[in-house]
Design brief:
It is built from 16 helices and 17 strands. The longest helix has 32 residues, at 201-232. It is of the alpha+beta class and 503 residues long. Helices cover 34% and strands 26% of the residues. The strands form two sheets. Strands 1, 2, 3, 4, 5, 6, 7 and 8 form an eight-stranded mixed sheet that branches. The protein has helices at 18-29, 43-51, 56-64, 77-80, 93-102, 107-112, 140-145, 174-179, 201-232, 258-262, 268-285, 324-334, 349-354, 426-431, 457-463, 475-499, and strands at 6-10, 36-40, 117-124, 129-134, 156-158, 161-165, 184-188, 245-249, 306-319, 337-346, 359-368, 372-387, 393-403, 409-419, 432-439, 447-454, 468-470.
Length: 503
């Protein structure tokens, strides 16, 4: 059987396309290779990194070490004071001098790359058309133009025409992949698609991008459906004799917007981890037939006020032990430390609080020398103050599945035990994670290691700035959401350590 010709289509999404690096790593680990890669808007950045010869792990490392503030560079004051009006909020110097070099983008390597071939989408503003630039013809000007959104960056002059980001025409180009003979289209989608319409100038600017991006994609889907119908009727269309198939990976909820990334409310590690986990989930559930070419494939859950924070816990850990406290002692004596980096998301705080298990979500990565470093999670479980069969005990559950550097699957199952006890025990209980490591993809597998992870004072101080409300429409609603979570957390602690303990 002839192997399918595959195209990887990297859609836009601003700086948030760090998410795509995690997806690319998961696809590479699954052995999925591509003959052609297409990029539009922010997706052109990852395309440029791939064609510059970076491996997925190198892409991730560069995204995680990037200072995202370098994306913004202020123009000379005279540009803002011009009587003709402001040309743009910033210019491309930060991209050209800092961001692209740090991300490993090399125009000469891009032009010389022959496998896979790449295509970059830009908007020719002068002609009001979309143009596809092959990697062999790419220039730095084209690369800058590909991410130059009106208002935020000026148009780029190239050969007598002005060029901009293609997002207003298309944010992905599946038809280019079809024209190049692709049988399988793998789209990585970062642009939001919910049924909610938000107030505010910035959110409505984002909505315009969402409308343009999704609308153009769905129009292409209609054409591909027509092509597939002709093929099903026995016709050969541009060399295609079998129907074109679609695979699409996207987050379940919209990714945080670029200002959250810029202000540190989310970081590249969190985006990469989420992309990797979403790709793993899709890879384990996909069918050979793929997905329908229909608008529903990019739909995401509606946003509700939520809460998020990033937490790092580490401690002594030993393979071959099953008791956490014993494993911690052995690990400390052997110098083996297990570290969990987790991003906890509560997408709907009201629903979370009314759920008896208080079920949120967690993505993250693991550092443990015997198995590897920066190992992204394949799936995760988070419960806060989940009840148990013992009415005096509640668990704070942290679980992450991951693959070791040799590809073997493991599952970290940890829990903090919050129980009726003196108030002085509160700190230890809420910062101590008794952890077992299972072989396999869940905690039914045999226990192959154990230890105790703790949240130190330094880690707590690092966590506090990451705690913030999500999906709120105003500073007032954000403050109300933070207060609501705080009251819930402190209320559970008060009930356990004060009321039930008889203090």
């Amino acid at each position: 059987m002839t192997a399918p010709r595959r195209s990887l289509i990297l859609a836009g999404g601003g700086m948030r396309v760090a998410y795509q690096a995690g997806v690319i790593k998961a696809l590479a680990e699954a052995g999925i290779e591509f003959d052609h890669v297409d990029g539009a808007s922010g997706g052109t950045i990852n395309l440029a990194m791939l064609l510059s010869g970076l491996t997925p792990d190198q892409m991730i490392a560069r995204w995680e070490s990037l200072d995202v503030h370098k994306f913004v560079s202020v123009m000379p004051f005279a540009k803002y004071a011009s009587l003709q009006g402001m040309e743009a909020m910033g210019d491309a110097r930060g991209l050209v001098n800092d961001v692209f070099p740090h991300l490993g983008v090399d125009i000469d390597k891009i032009r010389a790359c022959t496998s896979p071939v790449g295509t970059f989408n830009v908007c020719n503003f002068t002609r009001k058309t979309g143009e596809v630039i092959s990697n062999s013809e790419m220039t730095m000007d084209h690369l800058v133009a590909g991410v130059s959104l009106p208002i935020f960056m000026p148009a780029v002059p190239i050969n007598g025409s002005l060029y901009l980001d293609a997002v207003w025409i298309r944010d992905a180009n599946p038809l280019e992949a079809v024209r190049r003979g692709a049988d399988e289209l793998w789209i990585v989608w970062c642009i939001g698609n919910t049924g909610e319409y938000h107030d505010g100038v910035f959110r409505q600017y984002v909505h315009m991008i969402e409308i343009a991006a999704n609308g153009a994609l769905f129009k292409d889907f209609e054409q591909i459906n027509e092509i597939n119908a002709r093929i099903a009727a026995g016709e050969t269309v541009d060399g295609h004799t079998t129907p074109i198939r679609l695979h699409l990976i996207r987050p379940a909820h919209p990714l945080p917007l670029d200002p959250d990334f810029y202000l540190g409310k989310i970081d590249a590690r969190s985006l990469v981890d989420r992309g990797y986990a979403d790709a793993q989930e899709y890879l384990h559930t996909r069918t050979d037939a793929g997905l329908p070419f229909a608008p529903e494939v990019t739909q995401m859950a509606n946003e509700a006020p939520g809460f998020t924070f990033r937490e790092k816990m580490s401690g002594g850990f030993a393979l071959g032990e099953t008791d956490p406290e014993t494993g911690a002692k052995v690990g400390h004596s052997d110098g083996n430390t297990f570290t969990m980096h987790g991003t906890i998301n509560i997408d709907d705080l009201d629903k979370f609080m009314s759920d008896p298990d208080h079920d949120g979500s967690i993505t993250g990565s693991i550092d443990f020398a015997p198995l590897g470093f920066n190992l992204p999670s394949t799936k995760g479980v988070f419960n806060l103050f989940s009840p148990t069969t013992d009415p005096t005990v509640k668990y704070m559950v942290y679980e992450l599945g991951f693959n070791a550097s040799d590809g073997k699957p493991y599952y970290m199952a940890g829990r903090k035990e919050v129980k009726d006890a003196p108030l002085t025990d509160m700190w230890k209980a809420t910062t101590t994670l008794y952890t077992q490591l299972h072989q396999g993809t869940d905690k039914t597998g045999p226990v192959v290691g154990a230890g105790v992870l703790t949240l130190g004072v330094t880690d707590l101080l690092a966590m506090i700035p990451t705690m913030h409300a999500t999906n709120t429409t105003s500073p007032v609603q954000a403050a109300e959401t933070v207060t609501k979570f705080g009251k819930f957390f402190l209320g559970e602690v008060w009930e356990t350590y004060v009321e039930k303990a008889g203090v």
